[in-house]
Amino acid sequence: MMGCLFPGEMREIGEEIEKYAMGLQEIRLRVNSPVFLLQDGMERKLMKRIISREDIGRLFAHLCNHSMYAYEDEIRQGFLTTPEGHRIGLSGTVVLDSNGQIRTLKYVQAMNIRIAHEVKGVADQVLPYLYETGHFQNTLLLSAPGGGKTTLLRDLIRVISDGNRFDRGRNVSVIDERLELSGAIRGISQNDLGMRTDLLAGCPKMAGMELLIRSMRPEVLAVDELGRLEELECLGKACACGIHVLATAHGASLEDFFYRFREYIGMEYLFQRVLVLENCNNHFGVKGCFRKNELGNDWVLM
């Protein structure tokens, strides 16, 4: 399976990596360095071959199907996506346009192949916390990097879209700015996001939310990795239109997140559930699920 990621001249690297396929999370390749793997949270170093600049060039061309022009939008954002949904982060020399914006990358010298892990069923354990009298509650998923929030978000989108034991299937609109949720190729999701899901791939979150609210009439709006005050404000507008929201953000605790976005005056009305996740032996676990108290002025553990 890993062999197909590499061109013929590097196929032996893929065959060696295949031995560690179980639990494989990342493959890191750097010019003049050995290959490093992240497997079940542990780093492994492969000494079979030192990566050369020519290796990176061949791999880059192979992953672009020898047509870098077709992938220029992704390259400009610093990544590629394979048909299997794996995301390849890129680093190298940035080329700027006349406005100082990133136009492309050249002289790529390092790649981080993040192995896609679509895990169906992980949402089942948290669904009872996210519904009240048959209605989905506006939900925020919090965790530190690697805590499993994107994996959980992907599966929640699927079960909300397809329907579950708490509610019928709902129309879900997803903004997938960096293609981590969908692994989309030419706009088609490589992961199962549900049969009532409308995907907007590769679009900045702010513009994407406004577009989908106007055009697709979602019942649930889903977005990964909130990071700006303006994005919260846009979610607030969605809620004012009667749309439910499902989002993730970096944060080790509920207090950490609310402190970072303390300037948003509508925060106390935006989310009805907050799940704080943690990494437990390379699998996500729920550290705490919070809801508003009866007065609506504080958060309590469920």
Q: What does this molecule look like?
A:
The protein has nine helices and 16 strands. It has 302 residues and is an alpha/beta fold. An eight-stranded mixed β-sheet has the order 11-10-12-13-9-14-15-16, with helices on both faces. Strands 3-2-1-6-5-4 form a six-stranded antiparallel β-sheet. A two-stranded antiparallel ribbon has the order 7-8. Strand 2 and strand 3 form a beta hairpin. Helix 6 (205-215) runs parallel beside helix 7 (229-240). It starts with 10 loop residues before the first helix and ends with a strand.
| Global shape | globular
Task: Give the N-to-C terminal Cα separation.
Answer: 42 Å
Order of helices and strands: HEEEHHEEEHEEEHEEHEHEHHEEE
CATH topology of the largest domain: Rossmann fold
Q: Write down the CATH class of the largest domain.
A: Alpha Beta
The residue ranges in which pLDDT falls below 50 over 5 or more consecutive positions are: none
Main beta sheet: 8 strands, mixed
Helix count equals 9
The pLDDT mean sits at 88
Helical proportion, percent range: 25-40%
CATH superfamily of the largest domain: P-loop containing nucleotide triphosphate hydrolases
Structural class: alpha/beta
Q: Give the CATH architecture of the largest domain.
A: 3-Layer(aba) Sandwich
Number of strand elements: 16
Rg on CA atoms, Å: 20 Å
Name the beta content range. 25-35%
